[in-house]
Amino acid sequence: MENRNLLRNLPQTPKPSLPVLVLSKLIMIVLPIAQIAIGVVYMKDCPAEHYIPIYLVVTGSFSLALAMLSCLPCSQESDEGDQGPLYKLCTTWNSLVSFFLFCWFIAGNVWIYSIYAPDYDPKAGVSHCNKTLYLFAFWTTTLCYILLGLMLVGGCCMLLCLCVLGKSVQEGADEV
C-alpha cells in the first residue's frame, strides 16, 4: 500500500452545522471590530508612530470584509464541484484581499515593533503612544505569530503521525 492511499482512506470531515458556522463567524469578527474601534478612538494618540491606529482600522476593515464575503453563496463551491464565473470572481477577490492583508501585516510589524516600547506618558511629546492603543496593536500582532507557531508545530506533529501510521500500515501489508 502506498503512502498516497493512506491519505485517500482518511474519512472526510463532516460539514459543520449552521449554528456552528454562525458562531464561528461571530467569533471571527470580534477582533476586527475591536481593531476598528480602538484604531478610531485613539487615532491621534500615537505621535511616535501615527500609522499604528491607521494600521488597526485598515486591518480590521479588510478582515471584517473578508469574513463577511466568505458568508456569501458565491464564495462556496457547489456540491457537484462546479466552479462558475461568480465563484472564480469571489476566489480571486478573496485572494487579492488576503495578499493585501499579508503585505499590510508586514508593514504593521515594522510600525509596531520599530518603536517598542514607546513612552506612554503624553507629556513626553512626539515619542509617546497611548498605552491601550500600542499594547492592543502589539499583542494582536504577536498573537498572529503565536498562532502561526502553534499551527506549524501541530502540522509537523500531524505529518509525523501520518508517516508513522503509514509505515505501520505498510509493514502490516508486507506481512500478509
From TrEMBL:
Keywords: Membrane, Transmembrane, Transmembrane helix. The chain crosses the membrane at residues 20-42, 54-75, 96-116, 136-165. This is Si:dkey-19b23.12. It comes from Paramormyrops kingsleyae. The lineage of its organism: Eukaryota, Metazoa, Chordata, Craniata, Vertebrata.
